[in-house]
UniProtKB/TrEMBL annotation:
Organism, as annotated: Culter alburnus
Key word Membrane present: yes
Cellular-component GO terms for this entry: cytoplasm; endomembrane system; membrane
Keyword Protein transport part of the UniProt annotation: yes
Transmembrane segments: 37-59, 65-88, 100-120, 126-147
Cross-referenced PANTHER family: VESICLE TRANSPORT PROTEIN SFT2B, VESICLE TRANSPORT PROTEIN-RELATED
Residue stretches in coiled coil: none
Lineage: superkingdom: Eukaryota
UniProt name for this protein: Vesicle transport protein
Family stated for the protein in its record: Belongs to the SFT2 family.
Function according to Swiss-Prot or TrEMBL: May be involved in fusion of retrograde transport vesicles derived from an endocytic compartment with the Golgi complex.
Any one Gene Ontology BP term: protein transport
Length: 165
């Protein structure tokens, strides 16, 4: 209440804040609410993904439904982590130099999958984008595990050298 009075009377001495800090302060949630939001979004994401897999067996439209549900499931799963860290911190981590490329590829694949399914209606392109989406989301997720991407690269390079011999 004192802060509100100070702002309304023009005595707010905290003028050096930027708009992101102000938005972050205005949208802070308690830890319990963050966990509930995380669980809710993650459950919704898993349910969408599971529905997508179940839709694979529907004749004619099953694959398109899978692609759409799977994409929405990935979006919900990605948004769920924003509840734990906060949107600003999550966006900063997504744009960190170690995972910026993975983030761009993942978001691009999410958008292109939906564009190919709804607007362009090119089935082969949609399928290609969903495969790239799976790979990009896995690569992005591995960026949060220390040295996981290095281990995967080393494994595949070792596998390639074994196949060449």
């Amino acid at each position: 209440m004192d802060k509100l009075r100070a702002v309304l009377s023009g005595r707010d001495g905290n003028n050096d804040r930027n708009i992101l800090q102000a938005a972050n302060e205005a949208s802070t949630l308690g830890w319990g609410t963050r966990v509930k939001g995380f669980i809710a979004c993650m459950v919704i994401g898993v349910v969408f993904t599971f529905l997508g897999v179940c839709c694979l067996f529907i004749p004619k439209i099953g694959l398109i439904l899978f692609i759409v549900f799977y994409t929405f499931g990935n979006i919900c799963s990605l948004v769920s982590t924003m509840f734990l860290m906060g949107p600003i911190k999550q966006l900063k981590r997504m744009c960190d130099k170690t995972r910026a490329f993975a983030t761009v590829v993942m978001i691009t694949c999410l958008v292109l999958t939906l564009c190919a399914a709804f607007w362009w209606k090119i089935f082969a392109l949609t399928l290609l984008f969903v495969i790239l989406q799976v790979l990009a989301f896995a690569w992005y997720s591995l960026s949060y595990i220390p040295f996981a991407r290095d281990a995967i690269l080393k494994f595949f390079s070792m596998l390639c050298t074994m196949c060449v011999k």
